[in-house]
Amino acid sequence: MKTLFKRFSAVFLAVIMIAALAACGQADTPAAVETDAPVESSESSSDDLTVNVMVLNGTTGFGMANLMYSAQNGEAALDYNFSVETDASSVTAALINGSADIAALPTNAAAALYNKTGGTVQAMKTAKEKVKIAIVGKYVALRDSYISLVEAVRHAAGENGVQADLLWVDSETVTNANVKKKLKDADGVIVPGGFGTRGVEGMIAACKYARETGLPYLGICLGMQISVIEFARDVAGIKDATSGEFLSETNGEGSAVIDILPEKKGKKIGGTMRLGEYVCALKEGTRISEAYGGKKQIRERHRHRYEFNNDYRETLEKAGLVLGGTSPDNRIVETVEVENHPFFVGVQFHPEFTSTPETPNPLFCAFIKSAKEKSQTAAEKSAE
Fold this sequence. Notes:
alpha/beta; D-Maltodextrin-Binding Protein, domain 2; Rossmann fold; nine-stranded mixed β-sheet; 11 helices; 17 strands; 34% helix
């Protein structure tokens, strides 16, 4: 009985919160969240039920004001114990361990918490719309290899008011012949980071399919390098385009459009890595600049060895490859994209490392937004 009362009060509270915030005209509408934590007593009335409520200080908690006032004056139907917090992490922890029954969180944080707990903690205003994101990588059998990537996708999905349905695609199984079948259900494709030659040709096939069909594409680290190789082969006419990392598989033959920086050649492997946070200067009017809100410079974290080879820079730019981001001295290419495409961006850095539920990385948000638009367009066409 007590559990049923808890369920009812959670739904009731959610309605109050959403209605109150709508009246205030808040743009960042919070979601109420409940937990499935068990209640010991099986027989109880609403008179002895205490509902533990946590709320973040600030605008997120405005929807609680009326209920808090009513409870303080003894006018509420149930007994509420309120706690106002300044840190979202303490709220999410309380929901997970069951010490909080209900909490007011920003929508994106609520969605991320729902995904993280596998539905144990439920958002009262759960997004019904879904986007299907294909992750085409070589480590999909060990999905925790991409845990930061997965969380960043979920953060961005919550920000866009959708749920992310992940499609795991082993790049070793992808060919030009079957790539359409492999990606037919996807609203967007991510080719993540990695090392070595295994599965690379499958990634290139997925990248080509996304570029040619208008499927939103986000290439991260190796994924950016893949997009450069594919563009060089299929657009710029450099048929033997490859990476210096893969030359061992071709007996040293091929045009290394991706290679180690000249000054790092000959050094031990550890000395060739570019690690940590670096500044990236963004070119005005590019997709990457738009994603980051028009900023001229951003800071993102890196972990890689190979870079865009400037020996091919002029050739690739003439063929239409857009270099949207570079190091401040314009020496190192950090991001690439193609024109006349809904979303096709490759970045050498790892934007997933700076994403949180409260502040989703803007590049992931832009990617998910494009995937959402594709999904909606497809749904409209099928309904005609």
